[in-house]
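[09:14] KT: can someone run the structure on this one? pasting the chain below
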Amino acid sequence: MKFGIFDHMDRSGAPFGEQYESRLQLIEAYDRGGFYAYHVAEHHGTPLGYSPSPSVFLAAVAQRTRRLRFGPLVYLLPLYHPLRLIEEICMLDQMSGGRFELGVGRGVSPIEVGFYGADPAKGSKQFAEALEVIKKGLTSDILNHQGEFYHFDNVPIVMQPVQRPHPPLWYGVRSPETTIWTAANDANIVTLQPAQEARDITDRYRAEWQKLGKPASELPLLGVARHIVLAENDNEAKHAAQRAYRPWRKHLEFLWKQHGVPFRLTMFPLEFDELQDAGGAFAGTAGGARAYIERQMEMSGANYFVCDISFGDLTPAEAMRTVQLLVREVLPAFPDRAGAAALG
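[09:31] RB: done, structure tokens below
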């Protein structure tokens, strides 16, 4: 079992430069504390996403960390020219000594992809073709491709990633049917779904993996992501979580509400207490977190627990307190945690 971090990088209320620096300091703490990977979301035209160009921010992460793996969750492939993305992936993998994790997707928000002129109705087909081109580019010296969306004739590929044939793939999953594709492509997954729905996803993934004749020892990471806020007492943690969740929830729905589009992420209620009561988040002490995480992993069948630690208007000190308590009192209670270390 491994622990990771998911980050929307939504508006905190601090000046832009200050928010980036405080987040990088927090990521340094993830690195020292032995978390497996840091995953950052890509969003556009919304206070939900202050890292609209994940590669730019992750270049800084590569230089501020030593062991932590990192990557987008996800690059919105229809918004990128594949050749540019191939080169950025190679740069980030080389700059980090082979710690890059390649999250890919087509985008959950039709509004955001529409800002770039991409057709949401063609998103699935364009995503599949873009990924095919990117895989070719990461494994070839010359790129040739003739498709519906992309055309390349004898384009030299002068860069390579450290990890061969390419960095590990990641995909965000909301339904069991998606695991047919993820298992076939050896993709690690993360879901935001509640534990029982997540169990349907992980069970289906394992069944598809077995059906393909792939060894159980090579099963990818199957993750669940949850908001986590810790303090020395329950009331302090819950107060901070309740306060910070409200602006984050507004940021989450911002574009959907503005454009009158039905909101899809219905697993997130308006108040943190409702989310915690449903099992989708935790605020409290380290002891309570240990029990919560154990239940979530057992119920969901996941082997990767992804923490959303810094969201809404949580202060850097509040987020760092959660990291410190996780590292000192929660993570050591779970066996087989890769890269465990004490937080300095």
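[09:33] KT: thanks! The radius of gyration is 19 Å.
[09:34] RB: yep, looked fine to me
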